Amino acid sequence: MLKTSHIVLFILTVTVLLIPNTLAYPINITDNLGCTVTIEQTPTCIVSLSPCNTEILFAVGAGDRVVGGTTYDTYPPEAVNLSKIGGFSSVNIEAVVNMSPDLVLAEEGNGLDTINALKNLDLEVVTLNPKTMDDILENIRLVGNITGNDAAAESLIADMTLQINDITDMTEDIPNSRKPRVLYIVWHEPMYAAGAGSFPDDLIQMAGGKNIIEAEGWPVISIEDVVDKNPQIIICSGMGGGSYTIMEAITGNQVLAQTDAVKNNKVYPVGDPNTIELAGPRIVQGLAELHGYIEPNMQPDSNATSDISSTPGFGMIPALGMILMVYSKRKRL
Fold first, then answer.
1. Would you tell me how many other CB atoms lie within 10 Å of the CB of residue 217?
2. Domains in the chain, please, with CATH?
3. I want to staple 108 with a disulfide (CB 3.0 to 4.6 A). Which of 54, 129, 144, 204 is the partner?
4. Is 18 or 162 the better-scoring residue by pLDDT?
């Protein structure tokens, strides 16, 4: 039997796909910087200035119109072959201009100087700057809108929302006393951690954990501070296989051996950091991965009533019932 959430997804998807795309250009949109941008016609030549923007463009069905991306674009696999316009924070403006794009999808992290320089060259620039999961969903809707891919964007949002709700429905009412203390680090020497306002922080809370780092952004933290806060779970995230390098450094550190996480072998390497740290559609995969680490380590509910099935001798009752049922059947034959 299909779960209710899957039935709802099917209905939403069919409904969205049956709605005709009545979008008429030109359209006016407001980007994440609060700037009003007029999209004169369906963009056919798009340059993306960040990996997460590229992922969104491909996910809503506009990937065949993306002509340029950064050197860090690796997903989907087709993005690797895009003409490159430099790095995320080192955009080659001349390379962008030479592609003659009718849309540049930027991110605030590209730098306001770069964004303004492109605007001053009369390029249509839409800038994204998501802070939360809700912002990511809204940006997917925005990109779907400006590229004429509304239906695909809404279908993607519906799917992501159901995956998010499957987890948050289980975790949103869990009291802090039951939530395990979590440390998310992206390097070990010095130790950089995900703090308040970062995507890992948001996902940790949604997945049912407590981030031990209260400072904003990605602060450097001391080993002594980690020992003092005593995380029960340490999550190691490093690009290009670096997650395992970080994990080995943590588990091999004699000082950190004092933490519950190391004592109890609760130090986990992230498979693909991009699913947690990039503001794209795959972030729901990152949420699921973090929940998989956190959920088994939640403290038991002290208010829960005891399960009768755990009472000594209770397991015999179903067994006796089965024996009697089989016996009665044989008697009737």
1. 13
2. 4-166 (3.40.50.1980), 174-297 (3.40.50.1980)
3. 129
4. 162
